[in-house]
């Protein structure tokens, strides 16, 4: 049973917030857009946290001072001439929406996947994928976690939406990814069920070690936010 449903109103609010946020600061990547409100959802998973994590979280939280949004001035007069089609700023912008999350086993470990980036580096990521037509973000998270890791999970909490920008061959993509917490209810760790064969490996990692292993700062932030949420509810 899903303990926390993100309603269409929540998703609309997230996306409206994203649009406003981007309008204020279009060049800032990896910005956290939305965090579910404390008390809005019920955490059903029992996830062991190491005793020193609370102190670490408080210290990290104290250091986290968001800076005001700044729009860098666009220098028109003195930049070298370049072909418009090669300037990423001139490419059309599209939005993409994905969902995924932290799937916990009974020992409090989280399943993550390895894949190779376009530049050939191995990167460790949270499982996620595109929200298909007619799917709720929760359904997407369950499906993608299952496809990419082999683990069947149920959603137990909503964590946050992150956004980032990347440039494709003919467009700039503004991507929003909603992350949930899931509890394993079946399956076994494997990447053989991934239809895109994007995931090359899947491993269990202790929740407290995610910060050391995940490649992207905003995915590390998802783990940090969820640890803080659990800590506040303890
Ligand atoms: N997975 C992931 N990719 C990121 C993050 N931040 C960031 O700039 N990127 C970059 C890496 C890639 O060059 C680019 C696209 O990666 P992606 O994982 O969103 O792309 P995908 O097509 O596999 O997406 P999906 O189907 O799994 O949702 O975005 C992040 O937090 N997570």
TrEMBL record:
A Pfam family assignment: NUDIX
Xref: PROSITE patterns: NUDIX, NUDIX_BOX
One Gene Ontology MF term: 8-oxo-7,8-dihydrodeoxyguanosine triphosphate pyrophosphatase activity
E.C. designation(s): 3.6.1.55
Top EC group: hydrolase
Keyword Hydrolase among UniProt keywords: yes
Domain Nudix hydrolase: 94-227
InterPro entries tied to this protein: Nudix_hydrolase, NUDIX_hydrolase-like_dom_sf, NUDIX_hydrolase_CS, NUDIX_hydrolase_dom
Keyword vocabulary terms for this entry: Hydrolase
Family statement drawn from the similarity comment of this UniProt entry: Belongs to the Nudix hydrolase family.
Protein name: DNA mismatch repair protein MutT
Organism the protein comes from: Bifidobacterium gallicum DSM 20093 = LMG 11596
